[in-house]
């Protein structure tokens, strides 16, 4: 007779390492959700009703939005972070809503804070920037290459670089001779006034540079943080601007500023245009554009 195999001690459910573990522990899943991207969060939310309710928590989308925008906790309070996340990462940009036929290409630069309601818009990235007193906008643009704008909506701003067809050209074969630094408040695409077209861009200044330009540059700065060490990184052009024979656009973003530069081949100068969009006639400025077109 064969030897009977010795019976080991049976495993009881009370000895299982998962005994007492709750698969629906809200704190655990909330922490897990903070490590998922937007698409994964949506997929998790479709699992069942419990996960759907969990994923709809505003704190989860706030964490994801700030993480993916690479920004710290804002001082301002925003509503409905899931919609803010969608509008920031669904591939939307301002030319999709209007002037789609003029648009060629774009790239996301990133996000930054405007803490004060005063911004400096510049076409020259030289430091130090000396702000003249008592000059009108036209003279400031001509002499200094920048302008000061008040009544800016504070908070998180998103910046894109747009490549647009020449505004006076209707040829589909146009190579695109205008670049635009396009910045908007994070809530802009959720605003009814923007979506229904009642808010329009207004030209706040323009002028011509009637000589060869080595590059087309533009920057938007929170004037309150103009002298911050992080902002000064933008003026260190050697650290981010391309070599003289590099024609690809370059961008630099800090906590309170954004800038772009594209090296140019032989040219006859640039037409520079500054635009702003207000939230209604007397509202705050919610979007800014600096465009540069070859003459």
Walk me through what this model shows.
Strand 8 and strand 9 form a beta hairpin. The protein is 22% helix and 29% strand. It contains 9 helices and 11 strands. The strands form 2 sheets. A 6-stranded antiparallel β-sheet has the order 1-4-5-11-10-6. Strands 3-2-7-9-8 form a 5-stranded antiparallel β-sheet. The protein is of the alpha+beta class.
Main attributes?
single chain, 295 residues, alpha+beta, 6-stranded antiparallel beta sheet, elongated
What's the rounded overall pLDDT mean?
Answer: 83
General form: elongated
Task: Give a short account of the largest sheet.
Answer: 6 strands, antiparallel
What series of H and E elements makes up the topology?
HHHHHHEEHEEEHEEHEEEE
Number of strands: 11
Strand percent estimate: 25-35%
List the helices and strands and how they pair.
Layout: H1 26-33, H2 38-45, H3 49-55, H4 58-69, H5 81-89, H6 94-97, E1 103-114, E2 119-122, H7 137-144, E3 146-149, E4 155-164, E5 178-185, H8 192-195, E6 201-209, E7 215-222, H9 229-232, E8 250-254, E9 257-263, E10 270-278, E11 285-294
Antiparallel strand pairs: 1-4, 2-3, 2-7, 4-5, 5-11, 6-10, 7-9, 8-9, 10-11
Write a short abstract of this structure:
The protein is an alpha+beta fold.
